[in-house]
Specification:
By secondary structure, the chain is mainly β. Helices cover 2% and strands 53% of the residues. The strands form 3 sheets. The chain has an 18-stranded mixed sheet that branches. Strands 2-27-26-23-24 form a 5-stranded antiparallel sheet, with no helix packed on it. It has a 4-stranded antiparallel sheet with strand order 1-21-22-25, with no helix packed on it.
Length: 286
């Protein structure tokens, strides 16, 4: 077993979560207000998909202001969404997708912000909400989480698995009728169809451990490229990409995949934590 080491890259990036429950949201009197999320800090290629117009490249100052509006970051691209009323901001990592669910104002002046993170990594830095009717909620394919003022991140894998990590404050993550509170310096995982795991100490660790790295004898793809087996593990809350392909992780963060060798005797790997800490690796075949 080998622990790989390389330069650490701290990426200011994305997330997702909710705490107060859909039932409460439905009970609130929702009024259409002048609400928006402003697009800023763009790098690389980022697309905006407004509900009422065509998909196009995003530019600084674009706004998501209707339910259904979407922002998508491409490879090696990042973006930031500033929430109106100076409530905070969301940073998105590469290959991430966020959709507006609700931007509204309650009858007593509370601001409701609901977002859906379908893939990738996002980090939220939010100020304390002074109006008890205000909510910021993040949905993912695995569950929903909500906060009232915190610094936390989420990472959504290709199978919907969601890693949640809280740096400051607290986040209530809910799924399958169960809720856990992920306090400062804690993390948890939610898998589709399952309740959140009990909170455990925050690691924010992008380490990658390789146990198997070999060319499979006699195996090639349609283009004649050799097939490589890669197996190992990382923290189960993390995201893992090998040669730009997102891989699913098992319950203990394990993976065992086969893929074509794209260049001579090496593969590229990237690990991203829910808080956006990244580490790149070059996997060299023996």
């Amino acid at each position: 077993m080998v622990k790989l080491r390389s330069s650490l890259v701290i990426a200011v990036l994305l997330g997702f979560l909710l705490s107060f429950g859909v039932a409460q949201a439905q009970q609130s009197l929702r009024l259409r207000g002048n609400r928006w999320l402003s697009v800023s800090n763009l790098t690389g290629y980022v697309e905006i998909v407004p509900r009422e117009s065509r998909r196009r490249r995003a530019v600084e100052g674009d706004r998501l202001d209707m339910a259904g509006d979407v922002l998508i970051t491409g490879p090696s691209s990042t973006a930031r969404l500033d929430i109106d009323q100076a409530a905070g901001f969301i940073t998105m990592a590469e290959n991430s997708r966020i959709q507006v669910q609700t931007l509204s104002v309650t009858g007593n002046g509370g601001y409701i912000t609901e977002m859906y993170v379908t893939q990738g990594q996002a980090r939220l830095r939010l100020r304390s909400l002074t109006n008890p009717a205000s909510r910021i909620e993040i949905y993912t394919p695995a569950g929903v989480s909500g906060v009232r003022g915190t610094d936390f991140g989420v990472a959504v894998g290709p199978d919907g698995r969601t890693g949640v990590a809280t740096l400051e404050g607290s986040v209530a993550s809910s799924a399958q009728g169960q809720t856990v509170v992920v306090n400062a310096q804690q993390q948890s995982t939610i898998r589709p169809g399952e309740p959140p795991t009990p909170p455990e100490p925050l690691r924010d660790d992008p380490s990658l451990y390789i146990q198997v790295l070999r060319i499979l004898p006699g195996r090639t793809d349609a283009a004649g490229r050799s097939i490589v087996q890669v197996a190992g593990y990382t923290d189960p809350v993390n995201l893992l990409k090998i040669n730009s392909k997102e891989e699913n992780l098992g319950r203990d963060g394990q993976f065992d995949v086969t893929l074509p060798l794209l260049r001579d005797r090496s593969l590229d790997a990237l690990v991203v934590t829910p808080l956006g800490t990244q580490q790149k690796y070059e996997l060299v075949l023996p």
